[in-house]
Amino acid sequence: MHYTERIRALREDQDLTQERIAGILHVGQKTYSDYETGKIRIPLDSMIVLAKFYNVDLNYICGVSGQKRPFPRD
């Protein structure tokens, strides 16, 4: 699964709007929509924020792994 599909699925699984996630990332809704469609590549720091927010590791959210593990905590 590509990261664009993964971030959309994670958002939809929690019944969240693009506006809500855009607010968390401090971007506009249109920019976040472009992240989900792949028109704009999402910055790494935003991927980290999403991984922490959804409590999934970066391998999962980036689509490298299909195994959902929690975000590592110090």
TrEMBL record:
It comes from the Bacteria. The keyword Ligase does not apply. Transmembrane segments: none annotated. It holds the Pfam family HTH_3. Residues 7-61 form the HTH cro/C1-type domain. Keywords: DNA-binding. This is Helix-turn-helix domain-containing protein. It comes from Anaeromassilibacillus senegalensis.
